[in-house]
Write a structure and sequence with these properties.
By secondary structure, the protein is α/β, with parallel strands linked by helices. It has 21 helices and ten strands.
Length: 503
């Protein structure tokens, strides 16, 4: 039995890791957490952001919470996750982290065997302006062939996501930065007789560079061959597994997942929880051993997925790992040209000169989504004012995109490596339990820089530093903040580290 500091009694988890009913069940604890939130934040804030926040399950010390919309999920994660965790631990100190997901209407009515609707297929009247940018050429996509009547893997039994019919190989623009990733994806998709190749294929890239487009394109091509495909985000995989545990259908969940020809998993960096990671690892092994194809995407290479089990990372790294590079200027110009030509089919008067396209391609370097925003601003200017698009008007229209370009994204792993090198210790020392002064101070500086230079939460930073508690990270941050105000030499040293990391 678990006991908190005030000696309330809680039910121990059952064999599936879910808390069984007892004196204080998981729903009872969650109800008290919500009461604490209401009392602390006030009725207005609570009703706006937490009224529809629900507990799904508690597994391996992780509370899985759900909300009905992605907007609520993003807002709570950005502003209140640490607060929710702190209040949860006040009521149940065995809970070490919280994960927030988006629930579907179907998800509230059934377990992992529920069916979700397929994505609509495009018709001849498909609006080209509605096709997402990222990396694709903006043109009408060809509809994918219908799956076999017994293909239950398409966004169905496992809570998978439907494939976007607009994201195909035909609508993907190839440039130097993504040519290898495109070639590998095409080779996997065209493999004959279902023979797995480059297994698993692991694509990694930053936001808006086209990795998800390639995943959908592979799925369409393989399904057109009549083979069974499922596309899952990390969130859907986790909540599908949790739902199967709650409904006691985990065996059926595993059998269905292992019975497909192609598993596509996106955003694998978000997979958390010991049991879920174990199931993910078992699934990888089963599919690879059976000669089934696996395609995985993440925002970093396998070696940097430190929240994942080492055996899973090793298995992912054992296939073909390809980075989808940043968009070079020529590729950005091609994307802009294609997008503008697609819009001219709807707005014939929308004219953009090659000089303006070249200017926008030079000015916006982050990702395809920013390029989409630039084209939308140019279109709005042309249609709302009726004036021609010149270099001057283009500069004004995209000013916010140029000014607000994100600085270099700093990774916690980079911080750890630089600090370790600077203070003549190893990165493993920083992640270890060693408490000598030669290790503690660099560790605290690395934690402080991780909090200041990244968007990671305190619990996430703690996990990246050897599985430490978020309170340990908070103590380190406060200690370094105090020391910086008292020690000019340390302040100069930390500022130098900041500049080195951001350059």
């Amino acid at each position: 039995m678990y006991r908190s500091e005030d000696h309330r009694t809680y039910a121990a988890p059952n064999e599936n890791g879910i808390e069984a009913s007892g004196e204080q069940s998981a729903p009872d604890i969650w109800a008290r957490v919500k009461r604490r939130l209401r009392a602390e934040l006030g009725e207005d804030i609570f009703a706006s952001w937490f009224g529809r926040l629900e507990l799904d399950a508690v597994i391996d010390g992780c509370a899985y919470l759900t909300v009905p919309t992605r907007f609520l999920k993003s807002w709570i994660e950005s502003h209140y996750t640490d607060r929710v965790l702190t209040l949860y631990r006040t009521e149940a100190n065995n809970v070490e982290r919280v994960v927030i997901g988006v629930r579907s209407t179907a998800g509230r009515e059934g377990a992992a065997s529920r069916r979700l609707p397929e994505a609509p297929r495009p018709s001849a009247s498909t609006n080209p302006s509605s096709i997402p940018m990222g990396m694709p050429a903006i043109q009408e996509a060809k509809p994918a062939a219908a799956p076999h009547s017994d293909d239950r893997s398409d966004a169905s039994d496992l809570g998978g996501a439907p494939l976007d019919p607009r994201l195909t190989f035909e609508s993907f623009i190839v440039g130097r930065s993504n040519a290898l990733a495109h070639a590998a994806a095409d080779r996997v998709a065209q493999a004959q007789n279902g023979q797995a190749i480059y297994n698993p294929l692991y694509l990694h890239a930053g936001v808006g560079l086209g990795k998800t487009h390639l995943l959908h394109a592979i799925g369409h091509a393989v399904r057109m061959q009549g083979r069974r495909v499922i596309y899952l985000t990390a969130d859907r995989f986790m909540y599908g597994f949790v739902a199967s545990l709650k409904a006691q259908t985990s065996l059926a969940f595993k059998e269905r997942l292992r019975g497909i020809d192609l598993l596509i998993l996106d955003d694998v960096q978000f997979i958390q929880g010991k049991q879920i990671q174990q199931e993910f690892g078992h699934t990888l092994n089963a599919l690879i051993d059976a000669g089934r194809q696996i395609v995985v995407a993440a925002d970093r290479p396998p070696a940097d997925l430190e929240s994942l089990d080492e055996r899973v990372r090793s298995r992912l790294a054992g296939g073909l790992v390809v980075e989808v590079g940043g968009l070079d200027e020529a590729l950005r110009a091609s994307i802009l040209t294609t997008r503008i030509e697609a819009l001219r089919a709807i707005h014939p008067a929308f004219e953009v000169s090659p000089n303006v396209i070249a200017y926008v391609a030079r000015a916006i370097t982050a990702n395809g989504r920013d390029l989409e925003g630039a084209v939308n601003r140019l279109l709005a200017h042309a249609t709302l004012t009726g004036s021609a698009i010149t270099l001057e008007t283009a500069e004004v229209a995209i000013r916010d995109l140029v000014r607000n370009r994100e600085p270099k994204r700093v990774k916690i792993e980079d911080i750890q490596k630089l600090v370790a090198s600077r203070y003549n210790v190893s990165r493993s020392d920083i992640l270890s339990e060693r408490r000598t002064a030669a290790v503690v101070r660099p560790r605290q500086i690395a934690m402080y820089l991780s909090k200041v230079l990244t968007l990671r939460s305190l619990p996430e930073i703690g996990r990246r530093f050897g599985g430490r508690d978020h309170t340990t990270v908070l103590h380190a941050v406060r200690k370094i903040e105090k020391a910086l105000g008292e020690d000019n030499a340390l302040s100069d040293e930390v500022e130098l580290l900041k500049r080195m990391l951001q350059e």
